[in-house]
Amino acid sequence: MNYQKILAVIEPEQSTQKSLARAIEMANINGASITAFLTIYDFSYEMTTMLSMDERENMRQAVIDERTEWLVNLVSDKFRTQGISIDVKIVWHNRPYESIIYEVIDKGYDLIVKGTQQHDTLKSVIFTPTDWHIMRKAPVPVLLVKEHDWPKHGQIVAAVNLGGDLEEHISLNEEITKQALHFAKLLSSNVHLVNSYPGTPANIVIEIPEFDPTAYDESAKKHHEQSMQQHSARHHIGTQYCHVDVGLPEDVIPKYAQQLDAELVVLGTVGRQGISAALIGNTAEHVIDKLNCDVLTIKPEGFVSPVKY
Question: What domains can you pick out in the chain, each with its CATH number?
Answer without folding.
Answer: 1-146 (3.40.50.12370), 148-309 (3.40.50.12370)
